[in-house]
């Protein structure tokens, strides 16, 4: 693990700011309409109302803050230029990579970028697994060692109980995957009666898996209405994706994604490491390696994040904390 230089961190901050602006405005760049506001639970949110071939629609822009108001002023002044913005962000990403930030592999970045374009993250989708760990490098200002960040899986978690300011936001994960024209096919479930929750490419190891928090006793795939797709229920996932955050995915064409809070990711890895059997020894070692690196970094830079994540975990009960304690003793990790 190595620190990223201060100049590159400044570039990252600039890239993130531009991406946030781009994400908010590109969906309305070519539409005519009006801005409006709503009061949701005491907070003000901005929307854009437009008439499309499908009728009147209302799109969420963002919370009421200086950045959102600047975006609205820019749109009203006719200053939006999507292609110019995209080219600028690609140049910034190239500079960031030249500064030592390791990008997500091209095929994986292409899939994640299409999910971003298709509104998957606006609809509550969260990137989990090792891809999220890769993305944490830029978020936390470090460059990970290669053994901790290797993967060929794109894991996306979603839930039917996501709290979002805009209740009608939806995405279509299967359609987004199909539109890539990369040869993805739905991996058949063990039972023909169950829908697929995974997509793969023949002859390649790249895979997309859809996950969702497991309800008590649930084992069969769950249909996630917001994502128009079925997902595999997994224990402990609700803690991981609760209160997720936005982050920049560094690639040739960067984009803004949603990932779990790094501290929660670290504690979740400690928990799931204790669920691995002997046949999954390599995955267990990877869990502990990632958790150890994150805990070390967070203790030095963001100890409050760890404290909050631990508080939230303690509320889940002694069983959860017992798994964390056992994993820490096994790996020599000190919280």
3D structure, described in words:
The protein is α+β, with helices and mostly antiparallel strands. The chain is 44% helix and 21% strand. The mean pLDDT is 87.
Helix and strand topology:
Blueprint: E1 2-3, H1 6-25, E2 33-40, E3 43-52, E4 55-63, H2 66-76, H3 82-98, H4 106-117, E5 126-128, H5 130-140, E6 142-143, H6 146-149, E7 153-157, H7 173-179, E8 184-186, E9 198-201, E10 207-213, E11 222-224, E12 229-234, H8 237-241, E13 245-249, E14 255-259, H9 262-273, H10 281-301, H11 303-314, H12 318-331
Parallel strand pairs: 7-10, 10-12
Antiparallel strand pairs: 1-6, 2-3, 3-4, 5-7, 8-9, 9-10, 11-12, 13-14
Helix pairs in contact: 1-3, 9-10, 9-11, 9-12, 10-11
Task: Give a quick rundown of the structure.
The protein has helices at about 5-25, 65-75, 80-100, 105-115, 130-140, 145-150, 175-180, 235-240, 260-275, 280-300, 305-315, 320-330; strands spanning about 1-5, 35-40, 45-50, 55-65, 125-130, 140-145, 155, 185, 200, 205-215, 220-225, 230-235, 245-250, 255-260. It is of the alpha+beta class and about 325 residues long. It is globular and about 60 Å long.
Tertiary shape:
globular
Radius of gyration: 20 Å
Structural class by SSE content: alpha+beta
Instruction: State the end-to-end CA separation.
Output: 19 Å
Number of helical elements: 12
Determine the strand fraction and express it as a percent band.
15-25%
Largest sheet: 7 strands, mixed
Output the helix-strand order: EHEEEHHHEHEHEHEEEEEHEEHHHH
Helix content: 40-55%
Q: Poorly predicted ranges (pLDDT <50, ≥5 residues)?
A: none
Oligomer: single chain
Whole-number mean pLDDT: 87
Counted beta strands: 14
